[in-house]
Sequence to fold (445 residues):
Amino acid sequence: MVKNIKKRNSDYFSGRYFKNQVKLLRYSVYFIAAISVIYLLLNFTYCKSSLKAYSSLGNFPVIDKDKISLGYALISPHKDKGENGAIYLVDLYGKPVHKWQTKHRPLYSILKKNGNIVTTLIAPGNDSDFPAGGRTGIIQELDWNGKILWEYKNDKLHHDIEILPNGNVAALVWEPVPKDMAKKIKGGVSGTEFQGDVWADAIIEISKSGDIVWTWHAYQHLDTENDALGPLTPRAEWTHANSLRYIYGYSFDDEDEAFSYEDSYLISLREINTVAIVKKSDGSIAWRTPKSMLAYQHDATMLPNGNVLVFDNNVFRKPSPRPLQGSRVVEIDPQKNKIVWKFDGGETGAEKARFKADITSGAQRLPNGNTLIIHGPLGYLFEVTPEKELVWDFINPFGSDSTPWPNTAIFKARRYGVNEIDWPEKLNSPLPTLSVMCQSIKSYI
Fold:
């Protein structure tokens, strides 16, 4: 024992100890340098592989520069703990070009022409009462630097909003169905009402002064028998609206009937598997999807050609020839009540079943005719051509850290064209050069 101690002391004072430490330090530097080189090579390979389209099972991401629609995606990531949140504007490589910090967790955001955003936020405590998803409670308008310009609070707010031409904001709110009517609603699991009530939806228009200046009550325009709930559906909700778009004006003539959708709303009512057009003039439903066309759908939008684009989650569909089918995006011709285009994951049954999103999700028709599809639960965004060729994809990198697995979910998202917004500051190209694209995004996370 004494000999060993003397030997260690001898090594220490003779300088052998320092030589060993220097050698160890040198090897550590070599190791770090090797890791850095590998990291740079991987980044370079990643960047280079991104410039050519690949199968979705191959290299990631897919970017076909000749076929994509240029623009920036506005993403409001889910955040499962804490109150603060963030909203990101990202380029086509997923690199943030701008960020808004919020005092509450965002659900969905819309960019205005001047670069401000209007966003729905989850009010503290508002995610623990009502049994349905999509609860918010706060709407805010933020300028480019994140300053709050306007705020509206209502604990019944949920899901979607729309900015109107006159500057007002339209929103969805829950409201109870009158009890005598609620008893007559067919279907659903008996005894699953919320606090003794069945809840439906209303559309409200909110002025800049915070006043509600117009309201539409869904229950006044639905039928308790024809708009029945599914046999396994809880009776807490009758409608569960999850998307709202204002129709500025569109009309066309059919051989048998003239349609006019001017000054109307396009609304998605998930629980009764319906997308409908509501006329503001009298509140009547001017058009609705046929029964069994959709199942638990999200994100209905009106296209310039008068058709309706919608993400059909395809949940709780009645027995069909393909009971294992997944979700799909469909374009509906409301004149003929026919699906004229769809994306359902692929050609084989396995490919179709793999494209499955039970909740959230959305779709956007882009200026070049491509379709941006948002798989909400995965936070997976991808762009396909009219021929269904994959030309771009992206996974939300701003996930929650409250679960032991990656949680990249989002409600839905939108892409904004380069010239669509009067950007308050000069932004890098949405498809930047290799050197710009491969910069670190740590400052935005």
Notes: Residues 1-14, 36-58, 435-445 have pLDDT under 50 and may be disordered.
